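Progress against Task 2.4 (sequence-to-structure conversion) is shown through the following example record, which the project officer requested during the mid-term review.
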Amino acid sequence: MTDQVTPLADGEQPVDTNKLVQTLIDLFSDNELNELCYELRLDPENLKAIYKVDKAREMVNYFHRRRRLNVLITVLREQRPHITLENLLLKEGAFDPIAAELPTTLPSAPEDTSNTMLVSKSLVSLLRLLARPDMRAAVVAFQTDFQAASSQIDQMNDFKMAHDLFQELENRYFLIQNDERRLPADDLAWDSIAINEPELQGKISDLRAVTQRPTFAAEEARWMAQLEKASDNIRVGVEQFDLDELKRGTSLLYRVLNRTPSRINAQLVSTATALRLDALEQAMQTINTNLSTSDLGRDSMVEEIANGVAALGGLDDRLTVLVKEHNAWQEIDDELRRVEGTLNQGIDELDDAWFDLEPMARNLAAGQSAEWATELNDVVDKLDEALRDKVIVTVRRLFRRFQSQVRRRFRQVDLELLTLCQDLQRVGESLDLLLRQFEK
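C-alpha coordinates generated for the chain above:
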Protein backbone atom coordinates (compact mmCIF):
# COMPACT_ATOMS: atom_id res chain seq x y z
CA MET A 1 0.00 0.00 0.00
CA THR A 2 1.27 3.47 -0.85
CA ASP A 3 1.81 6.04 1.84
CA GLN A 4 -1.30 7.85 2.89
CA VAL A 5 -1.71 11.57 2.80
CA THR A 6 -2.28 12.84 6.31
CA PRO A 7 -5.96 13.73 6.81
CA LEU A 8 -6.67 17.44 6.84
CA ALA A 9 -6.06 19.10 10.17
CA ASP A 10 -8.83 19.90 12.62
CA GLY A 11 -9.97 23.46 13.11
CA GLU A 12 -12.30 26.00 11.51
CA GLN A 13 -9.70 27.07 8.96
CA PRO A 14 -11.39 28.34 5.79
CA VAL A 15 -9.81 27.40 2.50
CA ASP A 16 -8.97 30.26 0.16
CA THR A 17 -10.55 28.97 -3.04
CA ASN A 18 -8.75 31.62 -5.09
CA LYS A 19 -5.43 30.21 -3.87
CA LEU A 20 -6.65 26.72 -4.70
CA VAL A 21 -7.57 27.79 -8.24
CA GLN A 22 -4.20 29.50 -8.71
CA THR A 23 -2.37 26.43 -7.41
CA LEU A 24 -4.07 24.26 -10.04
CA ILE A 25 -3.19 26.77 -12.75
CA ASP A 26 0.45 27.09 -11.68
CA LEU A 27 1.25 23.42 -11.02
CA PHE A 28 -0.77 21.56 -13.66
CA SER A 29 -0.79 21.65 -17.44
CA ASP A 30 -4.09 21.44 -19.28
CA ASN A 31 -3.61 17.71 -19.89
CA GLU A 32 -2.62 17.16 -16.26
CA LEU A 33 -5.81 18.91 -15.14
CA ASN A 34 -7.77 16.47 -17.29
CA GLU A 35 -5.92 13.56 -15.68
CA LEU A 36 -6.63 15.05 -12.25
CA CYS A 37 -10.33 15.16 -13.16
CA TYR A 38 -10.33 11.48 -14.07
CA GLU A 39 -8.51 10.68 -10.83
CA LEU A 40 -11.36 12.45 -9.04
CA ARG A 41 -13.98 10.57 -11.11
CA LEU A 42 -15.02 13.79 -12.81
CA ASP A 43 -15.49 13.99 -16.56
CA PRO A 44 -13.64 17.17 -17.67
CA GLU A 45 -16.26 17.63 -20.40
CA ASN A 46 -18.81 18.35 -17.66
CA LEU A 47 -16.81 21.41 -16.61
CA LYS A 48 -17.81 23.19 -19.82
CA ALA A 49 -14.49 25.04 -19.89
CA ILE A 50 -12.04 25.42 -22.76
CA TYR A 51 -9.14 27.29 -21.22
CA LYS A 52 -7.05 26.01 -18.34
CA VAL A 53 -7.85 28.94 -16.06
CA ASP A 54 -11.59 28.37 -16.52
CA LYS A 55 -11.19 24.63 -16.06
CA ALA A 56 -9.34 25.12 -12.77
CA ARG A 57 -11.99 27.47 -11.46
CA GLU A 58 -14.82 25.17 -12.51
CA MET A 59 -13.11 22.23 -10.76
CA VAL A 60 -12.95 24.17 -7.51
CA ASN A 61 -16.54 25.35 -7.92
CA TYR A 62 -17.68 21.78 -8.58
CA PHE A 63 -16.15 20.35 -5.41
CA HIS A 64 -17.01 23.44 -3.39
CA ARG A 65 -20.73 23.21 -4.18
CA ARG A 66 -20.71 19.52 -3.36
CA ARG A 67 -18.81 20.17 -0.11
CA ARG A 68 -16.04 17.87 -1.26
CA LEU A 69 -13.13 20.36 -1.24
CA ASN A 70 -11.20 18.14 1.17
CA VAL A 71 -11.27 15.37 -1.44
CA LEU A 72 -9.86 17.72 -4.08
CA ILE A 73 -7.19 18.98 -1.69
CA THR A 74 -6.22 15.46 -0.65
CA VAL A 75 -5.73 14.32 -4.26
CA LEU A 76 -3.93 17.57 -5.07
CA ARG A 77 -1.45 16.92 -2.27
CA GLU A 78 -1.00 13.35 -3.47
CA GLN A 79 -0.08 14.68 -6.91
CA ARG A 80 2.02 17.58 -5.60
CA PRO A 81 3.32 16.52 -2.15
CA HIS A 82 5.21 19.76 -1.55
CA ILE A 83 1.92 21.66 -1.13
CA THR A 84 1.07 22.36 2.51
CA LEU A 85 -2.24 23.29 4.06
CA GLU A 86 -0.80 26.66 5.02
CA ASN A 87 -0.49 27.47 1.31
CA LEU A 88 -4.25 27.14 0.89
CA LEU A 89 -5.76 28.80 3.95
CA LEU A 90 -7.63 32.08 3.80
CA LYS A 91 -5.87 34.90 5.59
CA GLU A 92 -7.80 36.58 8.36
CA GLY A 93 -9.92 39.40 7.01
CA ALA A 94 -9.46 38.37 3.37
CA PHE A 95 -12.49 37.99 1.08
CA ASP A 96 -13.06 34.88 -0.99
CA PRO A 97 -15.84 35.34 -3.60
CA ILE A 98 -16.35 31.61 -4.13
CA ALA A 99 -16.46 30.87 -0.42
CA ALA A 100 -18.95 33.72 0.01
CA GLU A 101 -21.51 31.63 -1.86
CA LEU A 102 -21.16 28.55 0.34
CA PRO A 103 -19.06 28.44 3.55
CA THR A 104 -16.27 25.92 3.17
CA THR A 105 -14.01 24.84 6.01
CA LEU A 106 -11.65 22.11 6.92
CA PRO A 107 -13.07 19.61 9.44
CA SER A 108 -14.45 21.35 12.50
CA ALA A 109 -12.76 21.64 15.86
CA PRO A 110 -13.09 18.80 18.41
CA GLU A 111 -15.56 20.79 20.49
CA ASP A 112 -18.10 20.54 17.66
CA THR A 113 -20.26 17.67 18.96
CA SER A 114 -22.82 17.63 16.16
CA ASN A 115 -23.71 14.20 14.85
CA THR A 116 -22.29 14.90 11.41
CA MET A 117 -19.00 16.01 12.91
CA LEU A 118 -18.78 12.92 15.11
CA VAL A 119 -19.43 10.65 12.14
CA SER A 120 -16.87 12.52 10.05
CA LYS A 121 -14.19 12.19 12.74
CA SER A 122 -15.04 8.50 13.09
CA LEU A 123 -14.52 7.89 9.37
CA VAL A 124 -11.22 9.77 9.45
CA SER A 125 -10.17 7.45 12.29
CA LEU A 126 -10.99 4.47 10.06
CA LEU A 127 -8.81 6.05 7.40
CA ARG A 128 -5.91 6.13 9.85
CA LEU A 129 -6.56 2.49 10.73
CA LEU A 130 -5.89 1.48 7.12
CA ALA A 131 -2.22 2.15 7.77
CA ARG A 132 -2.20 -0.91 10.05
CA PRO A 133 -2.08 -4.17 8.08
CA ASP A 134 -3.84 -6.08 10.88
CA MET A 135 -6.77 -3.67 10.79
CA ARG A 136 -6.96 -3.01 7.07
CA ALA A 137 -8.84 -6.23 6.29
CA ALA A 138 -11.47 -5.50 8.95
CA VAL A 139 -12.16 -2.06 7.46
CA VAL A 140 -11.97 -3.05 3.78
CA ALA A 141 -14.51 -5.82 4.41
CA PHE A 142 -17.16 -3.11 4.57
CA GLN A 143 -16.03 -1.25 1.46
CA THR A 144 -19.33 -2.04 -0.30
CA ASP A 145 -21.36 -0.51 2.53
CA PHE A 146 -19.22 2.62 2.53
CA GLN A 147 -19.43 2.90 -1.26
CA ALA A 148 -23.22 2.54 -1.25
CA ALA A 149 -23.62 5.24 1.40
CA SER A 150 -21.26 7.60 -0.42
CA SER A 151 -23.12 7.09 -3.71
CA GLN A 152 -26.53 7.70 -2.14
CA ILE A 153 -25.37 10.84 -0.36
CA ASP A 154 -23.93 11.99 -3.68
CA GLN A 155 -27.29 11.50 -5.37
CA MET A 156 -29.06 13.39 -2.60
CA ASN A 157 -26.59 16.21 -3.12
CA ASP A 158 -27.38 16.32 -6.86
CA PHE A 159 -31.11 16.58 -6.20
CA LYS A 160 -30.51 19.23 -3.54
CA MET A 161 -28.36 21.26 -5.94
CA ALA A 162 -31.11 21.12 -8.57
CA HIS A 163 -33.69 22.05 -5.94
CA ASP A 164 -31.66 25.08 -4.82
CA LEU A 165 -31.00 26.20 -8.40
CA PHE A 166 -34.70 26.02 -9.20
CA GLN A 167 -35.38 28.22 -6.18
CA GLU A 168 -32.87 30.77 -7.44
CA LEU A 169 -34.31 30.50 -10.95
CA GLU A 170 -37.81 31.11 -9.59
CA ASN A 171 -36.61 34.26 -7.82
CA ARG A 172 -35.25 35.61 -11.11
CA TYR A 173 -38.45 34.65 -12.91
CA PHE A 174 -40.58 36.68 -10.49
CA LEU A 175 -38.34 39.72 -10.93
CA ILE A 176 -38.66 39.54 -14.72
CA GLN A 177 -42.36 38.70 -14.60
CA ASN A 178 -43.10 41.71 -12.36
CA ASP A 179 -41.31 44.00 -14.81
CA GLU A 180 -43.10 42.34 -17.71
CA ARG A 181 -46.42 43.49 -16.25
CA ARG A 182 -45.31 47.09 -16.64
CA LEU A 183 -45.03 46.63 -20.39
CA PRO A 184 -45.88 48.09 -22.84
CA ALA A 185 -46.93 51.13 -20.79
CA ASP A 186 -43.50 51.64 -19.20
CA ASP A 187 -40.55 51.19 -21.58
CA LEU A 188 -38.11 51.56 -18.69
CA ALA A 189 -39.13 48.07 -17.59
CA TRP A 190 -36.97 46.70 -20.41
CA ASP A 191 -33.88 48.10 -18.66
CA SER A 192 -34.70 46.25 -15.46
CA ILE A 193 -35.46 43.04 -17.36
CA ALA A 194 -32.14 43.35 -19.20
CA ILE A 195 -30.34 43.38 -15.84
CA ASN A 196 -32.02 40.22 -14.53
CA GLU A 197 -32.06 38.23 -17.79
CA PRO A 198 -28.33 37.27 -17.74
CA GLU A 199 -28.69 36.02 -14.17
CA LEU A 200 -31.67 33.92 -15.20
CA GLN A 201 -29.66 32.50 -18.12
CA GLY A 202 -26.84 31.67 -15.72
CA LYS A 203 -29.16 29.64 -13.46
CA ILE A 204 -30.49 27.72 -16.47
CA SER A 205 -26.89 27.01 -17.52
CA ASP A 206 -26.09 25.76 -14.00
CA LEU A 207 -29.13 23.47 -14.10
CA ARG A 208 -27.98 22.12 -17.46
CA ALA A 209 -24.64 21.16 -15.91
CA VAL A 210 -26.30 19.48 -12.91
CA THR A 211 -28.65 17.39 -15.06
CA GLN A 212 -25.70 15.91 -16.92
CA ARG A 213 -24.84 13.99 -13.79
CA PRO A 214 -25.68 10.22 -13.85
CA THR A 215 -28.18 10.86 -11.03
CA PHE A 216 -30.64 12.33 -13.51
CA ALA A 217 -32.40 9.94 -15.86
CA ALA A 218 -32.77 10.57 -19.58
CA GLU A 219 -36.34 11.83 -19.19
CA GLU A 220 -34.98 14.86 -17.33
CA ALA A 221 -33.95 16.14 -20.78
CA ARG A 222 -37.63 16.88 -21.41
CA TRP A 223 -37.94 19.67 -18.86
CA MET A 224 -34.40 20.82 -19.61
CA ALA A 225 -35.40 21.19 -23.26
CA GLN A 226 -38.36 23.32 -22.14
CA LEU A 227 -36.04 25.48 -20.06
CA GLU A 228 -33.75 25.91 -23.07
CA LYS A 229 -36.72 26.99 -25.20
CA ALA A 230 -37.89 29.42 -22.54
CA SER A 231 -34.35 30.76 -22.28
CA ASP A 232 -34.20 31.39 -26.03
CA ASN A 233 -37.60 33.09 -26.06
CA ILE A 234 -36.70 35.40 -23.20
CA ARG A 235 -33.31 36.25 -24.71
CA VAL A 236 -34.84 37.13 -28.08
CA GLY A 237 -37.59 39.11 -26.38
CA VAL A 238 -35.06 41.21 -24.46
CA GLU A 239 -32.71 41.72 -27.41
CA GLN A 240 -35.50 42.72 -29.81
CA PHE A 241 -37.85 44.40 -27.32
CA ASP A 242 -40.46 41.86 -28.41
CA LEU A 243 -43.09 41.61 -25.67
CA ASP A 244 -44.91 38.67 -27.26
CA GLU A 245 -41.68 36.65 -27.42
CA LEU A 246 -40.87 37.58 -23.83
CA LYS A 247 -44.31 36.43 -22.69
CA ARG A 248 -43.92 33.13 -24.52
CA GLY A 249 -40.67 32.55 -22.68
CA THR A 250 -41.93 33.50 -19.21
CA SER A 251 -45.12 31.47 -19.71
CA LEU A 252 -43.14 28.35 -20.62
CA LEU A 253 -40.74 28.98 -17.74
CA TYR A 254 -43.68 29.25 -15.34
CA ARG A 255 -44.99 25.84 -16.46
CA VAL A 256 -41.61 24.26 -15.75
CA LEU A 257 -41.31 25.99 -12.37
CA ASN A 258 -44.83 24.91 -11.44
CA ARG A 259 -44.15 21.21 -12.05
CA THR A 260 -40.50 20.24 -11.98
CA PRO A 261 -39.27 21.36 -8.52
CA SER A 262 -41.90 19.20 -6.77
CA ARG A 263 -40.81 16.19 -8.86
CA ILE A 264 -37.17 16.77 -7.99
CA ASN A 265 -38.16 17.12 -4.36
CA ALA A 266 -39.96 13.77 -4.57
CA GLN A 267 -36.82 12.20 -6.04
CA LEU A 268 -34.77 13.68 -3.22
CA VAL A 269 -37.12 12.22 -0.64
CA SER A 270 -37.10 8.85 -2.41
CA THR A 271 -33.29 8.80 -2.36
CA ALA A 272 -33.24 9.83 1.30
CA THR A 273 -35.65 6.98 2.08
CA ALA A 274 -33.29 4.52 0.39
CA LEU A 275 -30.22 5.83 2.22
CA ARG A 276 -29.07 2.93 4.39
CA LEU A 277 -27.44 4.75 7.26
CA ASP A 278 -28.37 1.77 9.41
CA ALA A 279 -26.14 -0.49 7.25
CA LEU A 280 -23.29 1.98 7.64
CA GLU A 281 -23.92 2.10 11.38
CA GLN A 282 -23.82 -1.72 11.59
CA ALA A 283 -20.58 -1.88 9.62
CA MET A 284 -18.88 0.62 11.91
CA GLN A 285 -20.28 -1.13 14.99
CA THR A 286 -18.74 -4.42 13.84
CA ILE A 287 -15.39 -2.72 13.25
CA ASN A 288 -15.61 -1.11 16.66
CA THR A 289 -16.32 -4.46 18.31
CA ASN A 290 -13.22 -5.93 16.67
CA LEU A 291 -11.14 -2.97 17.80
CA SER A 292 -12.20 -3.34 21.42
CA THR A 293 -10.52 -6.75 21.57
CA SER A 294 -7.31 -5.57 19.90
CA ASP A 295 -4.30 -3.72 21.26
CA LEU A 296 -6.09 -0.52 20.23
CA GLY A 297 -8.74 -1.02 22.88
CA ARG A 298 -7.84 2.16 24.75
CA ASP A 299 -6.79 4.19 21.73
CA SER A 300 -8.53 7.51 21.05
CA MET A 301 -9.47 6.26 17.57
CA VAL A 302 -11.65 3.59 19.15
CA GLU A 303 -13.52 6.21 21.15
CA GLU A 304 -13.99 8.36 18.03
CA ILE A 305 -15.38 5.39 16.09
CA ALA A 306 -17.71 4.47 18.94
CA ASN A 307 -18.98 8.06 19.05
CA GLY A 308 -19.48 7.91 15.29
CA VAL A 309 -21.61 4.78 15.58
CA ALA A 310 -23.92 6.47 18.08
CA ALA A 311 -24.06 9.64 15.97
CA LEU A 312 -25.03 7.66 12.88
CA GLY A 313 -27.98 6.30 14.79
CA GLY A 314 -29.03 9.87 15.58
CA LEU A 315 -28.72 10.93 11.95
CA ASP A 316 -30.68 7.90 10.81
CA ASP A 317 -33.49 8.60 13.30
CA ARG A 318 -33.65 12.25 12.25
CA LEU A 319 -33.74 11.33 8.57
CA THR A 320 -36.48 8.75 9.14
CA VAL A 321 -38.67 11.22 11.05
CA LEU A 322 -38.22 13.99 8.47
CA VAL A 323 -38.95 11.73 5.50
CA LYS A 324 -42.08 10.34 7.19
CA GLU A 325 -43.41 13.80 8.04
CA HIS A 326 -42.47 15.16 4.61
CA ASN A 327 -44.42 12.39 2.88
CA ALA A 328 -47.45 13.03 5.11
CA TRP A 329 -47.51 16.76 4.30
CA GLN A 330 -46.98 15.96 0.63
CA GLU A 331 -50.05 13.72 0.67
CA ILE A 332 -52.16 16.44 2.28
CA ASP A 333 -50.85 19.09 -0.11
CA ASP A 334 -51.61 16.93 -3.15
CA GLU A 335 -55.18 16.43 -1.95
CA LEU A 336 -55.61 20.14 -1.26
CA ARG A 337 -54.43 21.01 -4.77
CA ARG A 338 -56.99 18.59 -6.19
CA VAL A 339 -59.82 20.05 -4.10
CA GLU A 340 -58.79 23.66 -4.70
CA GLY A 341 -59.92 23.61 -8.31
CA THR A 342 -63.44 22.51 -7.39
CA LEU A 343 -64.28 25.14 -4.76
CA ASN A 344 -65.85 27.54 -7.26
CA GLN A 345 -68.42 24.86 -8.12
CA GLY A 346 -69.23 24.05 -4.51
CA ILE A 347 -67.90 22.37 -1.36
CA ASP A 348 -69.04 18.80 -2.01
CA GLU A 349 -65.59 17.66 -3.10
CA LEU A 350 -63.96 19.20 -0.02
CA ASP A 351 -66.65 17.66 2.17
CA ASP A 352 -65.78 14.21 0.82
CA ALA A 353 -62.02 14.79 1.05
CA TRP A 354 -62.31 16.10 4.62
CA PHE A 355 -63.02 12.55 5.80
CA ASP A 356 -59.33 11.82 5.15
CA LEU A 357 -57.79 15.29 5.49
CA GLU A 358 -59.07 16.02 9.00
CA PRO A 359 -57.50 12.99 10.77
CA MET A 360 -54.29 13.33 8.72
CA ALA A 361 -53.83 16.94 9.85
CA ARG A 362 -54.67 16.15 13.46
CA ASN A 363 -52.23 13.24 13.56
CA LEU A 364 -49.39 15.49 12.37
CA ALA A 365 -50.18 18.11 15.01
CA ALA A 366 -50.74 15.57 17.81
CA GLY A 367 -48.30 15.93 20.69
CA GLN A 368 -46.76 19.07 19.20
CA SER A 369 -46.56 22.22 21.32
CA ALA A 370 -45.17 24.47 18.58
CA GLU A 371 -47.18 27.46 17.39
CA TRP A 372 -47.83 25.92 13.97
CA ALA A 373 -49.57 22.92 15.58
CA THR A 374 -51.78 25.09 17.78
CA GLU A 375 -52.82 27.23 14.81
CA LEU A 376 -53.43 24.18 12.66
CA ASN A 377 -55.65 22.52 15.26
CA ASP A 378 -57.60 25.77 15.63
CA VAL A 379 -58.35 26.10 11.90
CA VAL A 380 -59.16 22.37 11.62
CA ASP A 381 -61.76 22.77 14.39
CA LYS A 382 -63.33 25.78 12.70
CA LEU A 383 -63.30 24.27 9.22
CA ASP A 384 -64.79 21.04 10.55
CA GLU A 385 -67.65 23.02 12.15
CA ALA A 386 -68.21 25.14 9.01
CA LEU A 387 -68.44 22.02 6.85
CA ARG A 388 -71.05 20.51 9.18
CA ASP A 389 -73.09 23.72 9.05
CA LYS A 390 -72.65 24.02 5.24
CA VAL A 391 -71.65 27.69 5.51
CA ILE A 392 -70.08 27.91 2.06
CA VAL A 393 -68.47 31.37 2.35
CA THR A 394 -66.89 30.49 5.68
CA VAL A 395 -65.76 27.08 4.39
CA ARG A 396 -63.94 28.67 1.45
CA ARG A 397 -62.24 31.24 3.67
CA LEU A 398 -61.14 28.65 6.23
CA PHE A 399 -59.99 26.29 3.48
CA ARG A 400 -57.59 28.98 2.21
CA ARG A 401 -56.30 29.50 5.74
CA PHE A 402 -55.90 25.76 6.29
CA GLN A 403 -54.10 25.37 2.97
CA SER A 404 -51.76 28.25 3.80
CA GLN A 405 -50.82 26.75 7.17
CA VAL A 406 -50.24 23.32 5.64
CA ARG A 407 -47.95 24.75 3.00
CA ARG A 408 -45.97 26.81 5.50
CA ARG A 409 -45.31 23.75 7.64
CA PHE A 410 -44.58 21.67 4.55
CA ARG A 411 -41.96 24.21 3.44
CA GLN A 412 -40.39 24.16 6.91
CA VAL A 413 -40.08 20.36 6.90
CA ASP A 414 -38.73 20.55 3.36
CA LEU A 415 -36.10 23.06 4.52
CA GLU A 416 -35.11 20.84 7.46
CA LEU A 417 -34.71 17.87 5.13
CA LEU A 418 -32.56 19.92 2.75
CA THR A 419 -30.46 21.07 5.70
CA LEU A 420 -29.94 17.47 6.76
CA CYS A 421 -28.85 16.64 3.21
CA GLN A 422 -26.31 19.43 3.51
CA ASP A 423 -25.11 18.02 6.84
CA LEU A 424 -24.72 14.59 5.27
CA GLN A 425 -22.39 16.06 2.66
CA ARG A 426 -19.70 16.23 5.35
CA VAL A 427 -20.20 12.51 5.98
CA GLY A 428 -20.05 11.88 2.24
CA GLU A 429 -16.78 13.76 1.98
CA SER A 430 -15.22 11.66 4.73
CA LEU A 431 -16.49 8.49 3.05
CA ASP A 432 -14.92 9.56 -0.24
CA LEU A 433 -11.57 10.13 1.48
CA LEU A 434 -11.83 6.70 3.09
CA LEU A 435 -12.80 4.96 -0.16
CA ARG A 436 -9.81 6.45 -1.95
CA GLN A 437 -7.54 4.55 0.42
CA PHE A 438 -9.20 1.22 -0.40
CA GLU A 439 -7.78 1.52 -3.89
CA LYS A 440 -4.18 1.92 -2.76
